Amino acid sequence: MTAETQAPQAELGRARLRKEDARLVTGETNWTDNLVLPGMLHMAFVRSPMAHARITSVDLSAARQIPGVIAAFSGADFADEQGSLPCAWPVTEDIVIPNHPPMATDEVRYVGEAVAVVVARNRYEAADAAAAVDVSYDPLPPVLDMRTALDEGSPKVHAEGNKSFEWVFAQGDLDEAFRDAPVVIERNYRQQRLIPSAMEPRAVLAMCEAGEFTLWSATQIPHVLRFLLAVVTGIPEQNLRVIAPDVGGGFGSKLQVTAEEVLALLITRKLGKPVKWTESRSEGNMTVHHGRDQWQRIRIAADRDGRLRGLSVDLLADMGAYLMLVTPGVPLLGAFMYNSIYKWNAYSFRCTGVFTTKMPTDAYRGAGRPEATYAIERIMDELAAELGLDPLEVRERNWIKHEEFPFTTIATLTYDSGNYEAATAKAKELFGYDQLRQEQAERISRGDPVRLGLGVSTYTEMCGLAPSRVLGSLAYGAGGWEHASIRVLPTGKVEVVTGSSAHGQGHETAWSQIVADQLGVPFEDIRVLHGDTQIAHKGMDTYGSRSLTVGGMALVGACDKVIVKAKHVASALLEAPPEEIEFNHGVFSARNGSGATKTIQEIALATFAAHNLPDGTEPSLDADATYDPDNFSFPHGTHLCAVEIDTETGMVTIRSYVAVDDIGKVVNPLIVEGQVHGGIAQGVAQALYEEAVYDDDGNLLTTTLADYLVPSAADLPSYVTSRTESPADNRLGVKGVGEAGTIASTPAVVNAIVDALRPFGIRDITMPCTPERVWRAIQNAQESGGAA
Amino acid sequence: MIPAKFDYVRPASVDDAVRALAEGGEDAKVIAGGQSLLPLLRLRLAYPELLVDVGGLGDLRGVRDDGDSLLIGALTTHDDLMRDPLVAAHCGLIAQAAGMVADPAVRHRASIGGALAHADPAADMPAVMLALGATIIARGPGGDRTIGADEFFDDYLTTTLSGDEILTGVRVPKLGPGWGYRYEKFHRTAQAWAIVGVAAVARRSNGQVAEARIGMANMGSTPLRAQVAEAAAAGADASRDALRSAAQRADEGTNPPADLHGAADYRRHLARVLTARALAVASGV
């Protein structure tokens, strides 16, 4: 048999069970909170109970008397060394970026802001001591509504005022597009504030030995964190090692440089002992960065046949009290997505970032794109209703046809591929769209108190963050490349080192599959290492659905280099020039017909021994590669949702949900399915369940999971998922899938709800669409004479 | 969980537990499954100095047939109640409601005694016990005492148990022939508390509702009987319209809370809708 006929089953596309799951589900791993170091101390933070106040005194004396307490500090104790938490995305030249001390020194600006920290031998003593700290405040007026925060006379969050920035973007002649337009629709949509709820709470452990610092953190970004913590604390970068052990989810909330991480380093430096902190769920609800929180004014102009002409978007975005890592950039990621899959003559976008006395907002699954997709997909339904067209029909009249790719949009992005016709046709069929429309009409005509509504979302998104030069043009503070190393060991086993640090995504499995195909080695022979800056020395980490489309491509690049190196060694061993050496499925053979072959494992051993290497050959079968993409990745799809609404109570029940996603080629269908399921759940959560609520004094009311309702499997339907495939413009033909479900599902659900209620004259329900809100909308509509 | 410091005893008999409780005074608390108390300790909303763990008193767990009634031990878990054949045969309402409490992990820990003694007006079991006309059994230094469910719930998280009494069980009359039941729980997620819960039992006779009892969760500072609606239902035709009309009075005499999950007027509306639905099922309509 020749090597060609022994081709093993390709790994790409195999539904492999995840390598990492056994240790994750049996507890045979270390989360940050499980780690124990000799002499380790525990931190507990004293947090502001006031939304806005001047600190008049911090009395630590009683806390220091609690048995077991080693030290207690106020913000003032660190005033000279704690620096300012970084904002890496100054979106405009005149943006206001207020100083953001990790612990407040003179003024607090949101409930939960750290004002003091105690350090004790165990967590119980630390908690007792934190309760004994006496902080006096002089209250200042809170600023809670971004819509009035910019009024003259509004109390100020910062001396510089409540406006952080105004960012604008315009293409085409908007006046022309709206002039004499037969149809103009304007809507205001609310993106409620959300609290990311990762299963693993945030946790930090820091130690310092002989000037060498190690920080373990439940973070998505060990590499970015190392760089920025070095900048903030002044610890030389070469003396700081950051380790993200197994991390239990993030959804963007662990894409952050936090006060607790900074203080852990400062305190371990001061005390010479390891210190640890793990947040409680209620502490986390207050102080993990929040997501969304925008008011969106969207206006579209169209012809009577439904053809779109112009799009205008004006956003107010609540920054919260400070700008954190990418706070101001999050709404701007949406700027390029409001136009979505549709063709426009003109587009203008404006976003004003506003300070309030609330927890800062920042990236949360989808970051800017779910908000944009919601507004455009909601108003497309309004256009359909205005024109008496089916919502899918009005979309089809405007979307980019599949033969038109690559297509440069009005927002100046070039979509590499897509087939909206195919995804929509498949979704309609799986959903039974026409039969459901018929049932909907029947229910109305027989006066059924349970109404049916159908919701559509034909989304796309930009992910795979991202080309470094594009990020640079948007004033983002870092690049968008990713790094990988391949080390073929003497026994022929392979170590893969990735800079894309996973926190639940299954990189160890997917990366093994990719490398197995590229190098022709068994899946089981590959070990993937990540998350420790001393092992994976370079990386840009995991967010924005970037791991596969950027990090995966870096893997392929490193494999290429390994193969080139191996070919040189093979050429010496097979006595043929390198250009005559072929490589197939892990086997090198000479084209000279000798039939002699060498496996990559044999090459690895020969390279290790290095006895007979050609002149100038490095004795190494290792390679590094760094990949910087030319473009974003543009997954798309059609999601269809059917809801039943009990009009007597307002309860909304999802009856069926179909998701057809086009994410190009699939490395592991099982992992993709998990991402789609979880993503849809998080989008449904925004539509129906979740909202961070502050009261009139600025107290967070949703501090527990009894009040901040995160849905579980018991609350969600069984999804019908399927795919279409238009390969992306990269060597694996892949697109990102980490956020697609979340981006798509929120408008699908709310469109379904409004579709069911439209006969009452209702055209919007504010999210989350709680039973009470739905019931009240029906009551109000009936009182004002709406037909049903 | 990082609670404040407390002492802990695990007595071997009910009498030992009563003694420990009496000695602990005001700052002693009974703990069984812990599903209500532990969250309070975790959030440091409660600072007991002594926890008397009755979890070792195995005699208090289980369901016994006692003629016209069932005797349910205080430590019987919600999961036990969902699966118990005597409960299924004679008091199906309890099994139905138990299955809607929180999630499987909670149901395996949470005891019926704890659910009643904690007296959260939003809890499901207190409303169910009102509808079933149950009797609470308690042991104190002076011996056993029985308290009708109607007299048991005193105020928000407060019962008529004295500080040195332990709830040991509950006696529930069997539902006889002709009786039907239904628990309607309205909540936004499966694990969430009831925004409003309505437990109804009804006896049907000759196409009419001969009698009905209705317990309501989260319509005031204690679980409540919907007595006006009960009276209106008694003698009504067993028809959807007649029961809907009786249920219109379900919120009379209530004082529902307003919180993130529902304003008071919405809760009143829900009480009427849910009562109509519960009565319809209980009456076999």
Task: Please explain how this structure is put together.
The complex is a heterodimer of chains A (788) and B (285). Chain A is an alpha+beta fold and 788 residues long. In chain A, the strands form seven sheets. A seven-stranded mixed beta sheet of chain A has the order 3-5-1-12-9-10-11, sandwiched between helices. Chain A has a five-stranded mixed beta sheet with strand order 7-15-14-13-8. Chain B has 285 residues and is α+β, with helices and mostly antiparallel strands. Helix content of chain B is 34%, strand content 26%. Chain B is built from twelve helices and 14 strands. Chain B has helices spanning 14-24, 37-42, 78-83, 85-90, 92-98, 104-109, 112-118, 124-132, 149-152, 227-233, 240-247, 264-282, and strands at 7-9, 28-31, 50-53, 63-66, 69-73, 135-140, 143-148, 153-155, 158-159, 166-173, 179-186, 196-205, 208-217, 224-225. In chain B, the strands form four sheets. In chain B, strands 4-5-10-6-7 form a five-stranded antiparallel beta sheet, with helices on both faces. In chain B, strand 13 (208-217) and strand 14 form a beta hairpin. In chain B, helix 11 (240-247) runs antiparallel to helix 12 (264-282). The model of chain B has no long low-confidence stretch (mean pLDDT 97). Chains A and B meet through helix 3 and helix 20 of A and helix 12 of B.
